[in-house]
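> call design_seq(struct)
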């Protein structure tokens, strides 16, 4: 008689024994439960951090965050930056982050004077002039005959750029304003590189008398910058000439 013994085993096999879960995944009943957005049987598939992220106005998603183009900001690149924030244009306006200077100014912040290239004289006015010639009358039998002259360089070198008509028999006690517009407009080119002088003259036929002359000066001067009426005076302020001008840049 043969005796057969049956041995019943109640041991349960480990379903996760041969399962490897990567990137923080945990095996449950032989299947990986993935963490941190990873997927796949072994949690090896890297998550798409930009899935569902919208970057407007040409922005790009990098690692789940929008990288915005110039001029835009915000989580979705939908907030317009002010390109002129913090930019001070002293004599101009900021446009798209750059100063656009008003006429007569230059530089990154429009703070540097830009002198005009040419000047146009449209009118000359004489407000005050010497009433006597060192105590003697200019003319023995009448008032002086007055005209204006503009010279290049030292006065009297005959480089006249403007000679006005003569105003005759001016009442020296009440001359008013002597206004000259003949032979105008006169265009002076490249005034930045030239020196000028002016004179008030008394017409005496063959030998004119000088009532006043200025020293050489330049029109490229801060006092004249952007001015349309240029005042030329002597030190005692008893002689005054005004030039009405326009500028060409």
């Amino acid at each position: 008689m043969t005796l057969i013994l049956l041995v019943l085993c109640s041991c349960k096999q480990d379903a996760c024994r041969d399962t490897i879960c990567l990137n923080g995944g945990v095996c449950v009943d032989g299947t990986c439960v993935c963490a941190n957005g990873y997927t796949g049987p072994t949690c090896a598939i890297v998550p798409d951090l930009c899935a569902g992220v919208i970057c407007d106005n040409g922005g790009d998603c990098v690692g789940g965050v929008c990288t915005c183009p110039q001029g835009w900001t915000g989580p979705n690149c939908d907030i317009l930056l002010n390109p002129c924030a913090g930019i001070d244009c002293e004599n101009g306006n900021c446009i798209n982050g750059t100063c656009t200077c008003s006429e007569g100014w230059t530089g990154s912040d429009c703070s540097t004077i830009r002198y005009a290239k040419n000047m146009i004289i449209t009118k000359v006015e004489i407000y005050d002039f010497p009433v006597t010639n060192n105590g003697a009358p200019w003319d023995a039998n009448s008032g002086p005959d007055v005209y204006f002259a503009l010279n290049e360089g030292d006065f009297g070198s005959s480089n006249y750029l403007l000679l006005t008509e003569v105003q005759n028999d001016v009442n020296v006690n009440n001359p008013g304003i002597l206004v000259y517009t003949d032979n105008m407009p006169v265009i002076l080119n490249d005034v930045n590189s030239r020196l000028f002088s002016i004179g008030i003259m008394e017409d005496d036929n063959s030998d004119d008398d000088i009532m006043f002359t200025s020293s050489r000066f330049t029109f490229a001067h801060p006092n004249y910058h952007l001015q349309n009426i240029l005042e030329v005076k002597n030190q005692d302020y008893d002689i005054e000439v005004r030039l009405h001008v326009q500028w060409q840049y």
